[in-house]
C-alpha cells in the first residue's frame, strides 16, 4: 500500500484554488505495481457479482479496461458530452469545481443487467451518482463502486446505497 501511495502525486490548487488534486497516473508508469493493483481490484466481490463494468471518463477507463481484460468482462463507458455516437442517455452532475454531464450509449446497456462502476477517484460522489442515476433510471442494478483512491473527508460514499471499495483512502 505504501508503494502505491508513493505513486500518487498531489497538486494543490488544481484545477482551481482550494482543490488538492490526487493524480493516479504515476501508478500506470510502474507496471509491477499497476499489475498488482489490477489483480486486487479484479478479485473484489463487487466485480464478481456484476455482469459488466462501466468505466467513467477518463481515468476510470484506464483501470476499467485493465480490470475488463483481467476478468474477461465486458466494459461500457460513461463519457463526457459529444463523445459517443448513436442513441445516448445523458445526465448532468456537479463536481467539486463545476458542472458537467455524462453519456452512455443506450444500446451498450441493453445486453446487461448488473454493473460495477469503476473510476480512479471518489471525492464528493457527484460523478458516480450521475452514472448510478443513469443506470437505475434504465432498470439496471449497481453491484457497487470500485475506485483506486477515496477522499474520505469529502464523505462521497455516504451518497450511495451500494458497496464502495477503495484501495487507498486519504
Description of the molecule:
The protein is of the alpha/beta class and 170 residues long. The protein has helices at 2-6, 25-28, 31-42, 45-48, 59-71, 106-110, 126-136, and strands at 9-12, 20-23, 52-56, 75-78, 88-95, 98-105, 114-122, 141-150, 164-169. Helix 3 (31-42) crosses helix 5. The model has no long low-confidence stretch (mean pLDDT 95).
Structural key phrases:
170 residues, alpha/beta, two-stranded antiparallel ribbon, 7 helices, 32% helix
How many helices in DSSP terms? Answer: 7
Give the low-pLDDT segments.
none
Q: Portion of residues in helices?
A: 25-40%
Shape: globular
Quote the average pLDDT.
95
Span between termini:
12 Å
- SSE string: HEEHHHEHEEEHEHEE
Structural class: alpha/beta
Going across the biggest sheet, name each strand in turn.
Answer: 4-3-7-8-9
What percent strand?
25-35%
Radius of gyration: 15 Å
| Total number of beta strands | 9
Largest sheet: 5 strands, parallel
SSE diagram, text form:
Elements: H1 2-6, E1 9-12, E2 20-23, H2 25-28, H3 31-42, H4 45-48, E3 52-56, H5 59-71, E4 75-78, E5 88-95, E6 98-105, H6 106-110, E7 114-122, H7 126-136, E8 141-150, E9 164-169
Parallel strand pairs: 3-4, 3-7, 7-8, 8-9
Antiparallel strand pairs: 1-2, 5-6
Outline of the structure:
Helix content is 32%, strand content 34%. It has 170 residues and is of the alpha/beta class. A hairpin with a 2-residue loop joins β5 and β6 (98-105).
Amino acid at each position: 500500500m505504501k508503494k502505491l501511495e508513493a505513486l500518487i502525486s498531489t497538486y494543490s490548487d488544481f484545477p482551481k484554488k482550494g482543490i488538492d488534486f490526487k493524480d493516479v497516473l504515476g501508478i500506470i508508469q510502474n507496471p509491477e505495481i499497476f499489475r498488482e493493483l489490477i489483480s486486487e481490484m479484479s478479485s473484489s466481490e463487487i466485480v464478481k457479482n456484476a455482469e459488466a463494468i462501466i468505466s467513467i471518463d477518463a481515468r476510470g477507463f484506464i483501470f476499467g479496461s485493465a480490470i475488463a481484460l483481467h476478468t474477461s468482462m465486458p466494459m461500457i463507458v460513461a463519457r463526457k458530452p459529444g463523445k459517443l455516437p448513436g442513441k445516448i442517455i445523458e445526465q448532468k452532475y456537479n463536481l467539486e469545481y463545476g458542472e458537467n454531464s455524462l453519456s452512455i450509449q443506450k444500446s451498450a446497456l441493453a445486453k446487461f443487467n448488473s454493473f460495477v462502476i469503476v473510476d480512479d477517484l471518489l471525492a464528493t460522489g457527484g460523478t458516480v451518482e450521475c452514472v448510478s442515476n443513469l443506470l437505475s433510471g434504465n432498470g439496471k442494478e449497481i453491484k457497487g463502486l470500485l475506485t483506486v483512491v477515496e477522499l474520505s473527508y469529502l464523505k462521497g460514499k455516504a451518497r450511495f446505497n451500494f458497496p464502495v471499495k477503495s484501495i487507498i483512502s486519504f
